[in-house]
Amino acid sequence: MSRVLTDYWPLRGIRLTTPRLELRLPSEEELAELADLAARGVHPPGEMPFLTPWTDRPPTDRGRYVIQQHWQRLGTWSPQEWALELAVFHRGRPVGVQDMRARDFALRREITTGSWLGLDHHGHGFGTEMRAAVLHFAFTELGCLEATTASFADNPAPLKISRNLGYRPDGIARDVLNGRTVISQRLRLSRSDWQSSPRPPVTVTTPNNCLPLFGIT
């Protein structure tokens, strides 16, 4: 009997569904749509809310970066260090990317999240739903104990999402961007705070054979 791609790469079968969104790995055609989305912009011109210098890249380079990062994260995946980068779909069309990353997850049981939305899709509450989806997957399916994130101190939208989902301040980080120091607010969410905070409902489809890829036996 011939085998199919999901027999070797069961991550393809993961589906996270919220009231308005679906999160999953994209097809190659959908990945091209995500690249087009990034090429059109992920934040207003003149702003720099991410350590990734989106504003400084020409549109074609922004799209190519999205494709290369997606392939790189799949190609370097191991149970000891992984990054699940899910395309976010609304009404069947991609609107952005939500990721979750971990090192030595089997021991640490901790993830870090990051995301972006196409500029046309800001202001609709998608950021909360897509983050809630991967948190639900991490805490309920993978046995996560802690989730972390970080946002520039002057970038209020993701900080508001984090507060609404129950994160607590976890110090600051200093980085260099375009020759200047930038300060990020680190935030941390424990399993107990996640369980006690309001959040959108999430439905998860997970192939049984995918857990070893996350370091879970």
Automatic annotation (TrEMBL):
Residues 20-168 form the N-acetyltransferase domain. It comes from Actinomadura violacea. This is GNAT family N-acetyltransferase. It comes from the Bacteria.
